[in-house]
Amino acid sequence: MAVFETPRPVAAAAIVRGLAAAQRLIVVLGLQFGALTIADLLAARGHGGYTTLVIAPVLAVSLLALVLLWRPTLLTASLFLAGGAVSSVAVITLGLTVDPGFAEPGPFALNRTATALVLVGALHGSALSGMVWSMAGLIVAYGSLAVGLAAGGGSAAPGWGPLLLFIVSFLAYGMLALAQRRAQLATPALENALASLERA
Q1: pTM of this prediction?
Q2: Per-residue model confidence as pLDDT tens digits over 38-58
Q3: On the CB side of 174, how many CA atoms lie within 13 Å of its CA?
């Protein structure tokens, strides 16, 4: 027998999916813009010949985000974080190797890729999963920044970008998680009736 769901939980799950999709789209477009910013920075500092090498990992994460946007599953989310961590380390290491002053204009060139990992987004329309994945993204982001700075010999600060974005994402999913919980409790009688129909 078909499974029925009450309107409120369905609407809440749709909002969560919409937020997650928006986050991933921001990553795709934001990293492409970030690659252009890094290319402009390298050109301005006389290292334009290394542009492709340095921005390739940034574009790779943008591609992983596009795959995650197209098919949000546990596998693609895990690949996004794993590939993003490796790419973040690569961007920092390559950038500091090519130009020891890579971080002088500010931490944005160093942490742009890592910051994007916080926006991995929720899976299966669950706001609670969005909170968990946001936390995982934050841990991976700062872990990759620490490894990249150590490998590249940089003394720059990792910046507040990942943390600030995490706070916004975590609070948004937290409010949606409360809304989902209230929606589940709002119509218990109808849900029980539907469950009885499913068992019939």
Answers
A1: 0.87
A2: 999 999 999 999 999 999 999
A3: 8
What's the length of the chain?
200
Q: Other C-beta atoms within 10 Å of 94: how many?
A: 20
CA 65 to the chain's CA centroid = 8
Contacts of 18 (CB under 8 A, 6+ apart): none
Most confident of 18-22, 180-184, 196-200: 18-22
Contacts 24+ apart (CB under 8 A), 29-33: 30/112, 30/116, 31/58, 31/59, 31/61, 31/62, 31/65, 31/112, 31/113, 31/116, 32/59, 32/62
DSSP label at 99? -
Mean predicted confidence (pLDDT) in 152-179:
90
Q: Which two tokens stand for residue 112?
A: 């742009």
